[in-house]
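lol ok so funny story. i was supposed to be doing the assay writeup but got distracted and ended up predicting the structure for this chain instead. priorities right. anyway since i did it might as well share w the group, maybe its usefull for someone
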Amino acid sequence: MKKKKIKIETPQDKLKYEIAQELGLMDKINEVGWGGLTAKETGRIGGIMTVRTRNNAKNKQN
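and the output, tada:
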């Protein structure tokens, strides 16, 4: 199987990969790609991204 080169282009991409790493999903992503994740896994990543993005915006305002 071909290993895909990981492309981190935007701050959101960086955050997405960071959260996936924290959740222990990087092995699965490297094997089957982002499309191989379940809806529950992608929802978890998206939810955590939303919370962190909101918290960062709040911290910048203060």
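The longest helix spans residues 39-61. The chain has three helices and no strands.
back to the writeup now i swear
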